[in-house]
Design brief:
By secondary structure, the chain is of the alpha/beta class. It contains 10 helices and 8 strands. It has helices at 18-32, 49-59, 74-84, 104-113, 130-146, 163-171, 179-186, 209-223, 226-255, 263-296; strands at 5-11, 36-42, 63-68, 89-92, 117-125, 155-162, 190-197, 303-307. Bound molecules: uridine-5'-diphosphate and magnesium ion.
Length: 313
Amino acid sequence: MKPVYSVIIPAYNEEEGIAEAYRRLTCVMRDMGEPYELIFVNDGSRDGTAAIIAECCAKDASVRLVNFTRNFGHMQAISAGMEYARGAAVFVIDADLQDPPEVLPLMAAKWKEGYHVVYGQRLQRKGETWFKKATSKLFYRVLRRMTTVDLPLDTGEFRLIDRKVCDAVNRLPEKNRYVRGLVSWVGFKQTAVEYVRQERFAGQTKYSLRKMFAFATDAIISFSYKPLKLATALGFFISLLSFAYMIFIFYQRLFTDQTIDGWASTVVIILFSQGIVLVVLGMMGEYIGRIYEEIKGRPLYVVQEVVEQEKSS
Ligand code: UDP
Ligand code: MG
């Protein structure tokens, strides 16, 4: 039987909390009283996560497990879930219970009202460091200013999307997947449900500082050309400054008898402009690297196996 709801749960080394996530999600989904499936995407966990989910699969036909061959990343895991989902409405929720499953029925209610995308908007975030909160606030605001797509603020991957939206996003060929951005990009009728982000049920964040940085660069670069324009603007600015300085030097040489003891200033100017050139080159490199990723055309992820009771039709 085709489920009405699919729930995608990406999980990476979540053995301490995954059983509880299964229990709470199952409670909520059963209460909603319609056929559903829970799709756990195990993103190459090195702990017992896969084994725990496989146990749930064995005793519960609504659970499916997609095992990756290695850690491909959160966005890839969600993309895989979206490929495997069969429901008429598809939820995405983290495995750590930071997004409360009890919000899902509220999202479903909005969906029944006719919205195609219902995203969770964080009113407040509990149990996260001030550093994470501050950087992410800044990130959402900078990103919003840099792109022409209307990206909602303070919104993660916690959302409901309609089948039509899911299919539209699945059809996008790009490898660089900032999923929430793609969902905004495809349009449709979107609305928000506000919620308070909870503390992690167990374990530590799986987003290291390095992963967070890579994530932010990916998001900005796949949704904005502004950094390239900034490079041009910087170039102009520097040329203008040096032109003004050149006129000043001519003036000094011709009309004053000050000796030009400009060693320090010359070095400063050279270092400064070299620095800018390197930054700009790096920026170009980021784009070129991504173009390279795209043209290689490698798949987003590799699936080792799918564990489920009845084979999908
Ligand atoms: N996750 C993943 N692959 C990764 C990193 C994270 O599938 O490489 C999952 C993780 O298991 C969790 C979700 O993505 O379900 C969000 O990660 P996390 O809670 O660590 O991020 P935070 O909430 O701290 O931003
Ligand atoms: Mg989390």
